[in-house]
Every structure is written in structure tokens, then in C-alpha cells.
Design brief:
The protein is mainly α. The chain has one domain. Helices cover 61% and strands 0% of the residues. α1 runs antiparallel to α2. It is elongated and about 45 Å long.
């Protein structure tokens, strides 16, 4: 795994953890508009970077495995944890 790929993967993981934390917070504070806004911003960044990763290195999630293709790319590319 290249340093660039590793850095992108780390950023995606950080955003995922942030979404998990904010989601749990929002379970108990559903009217916190700041947290809702922060969750939405984080989710947008997560989606953007996940798609960027998938375009550059292969599908990160199964839902991206058929993007712009009629082939099941999930089974044809190396998984990030195999590098």
C-alpha cells in the first residue's frame, strides 16, 4: 500500500469513527442542530473520499463495486487489508 493510499484510508477511517460517535450522540440528543449539521458534513466527506478511494484503488465498499461497470469489481481488486 502506498503512503498516499494509506493516508486516504486513514482519513476515511477517521471520518467513519466520527460518524459513529456523532450518531450515538444524536441517539440521545436528537434535537442538537449543530451535531446534525456536523454529521451531515462528515457523511458528505466520507462518501466523497470513499468514492475517490474506490476510483483510484478499487472498491472500498461493496456498494461501489459496480460503479460505471458491468463487472463485479469487488472480487477483482486487492482488498486494502491485503497490501
Amino acid at each position: 500500500m502506498t503512503q498516499e493510499q494509506s493516508a486516504l484510508m486513514l482519513r476515511i477511517q477517521q471520518l467513519g469513527l466520527t460518524m459513529d460517535d456523532l450518531g450515538q450522540y444524536l441517539d440521545t440528543h436528537p434535537a442538537d442542530s449543530f451535531a446534525i449539521e456536523r454529521y451531515q458534513m462528515t457523511a458528505e466527506q466520507y462518501k466523497k473520499l470513499s468514492m475517490e478511494y474506490s476510483a483510484a484503488y478499487g472498491p472500498l465498499l461493496q456498494m461501489y463495486s459496480t460503479a460505471d461497470s458491468d463487472t463485479w469489481l469487488w472480487a477483482e481488486t486487492a482488498f486494502p487489508w491485503n497490501d
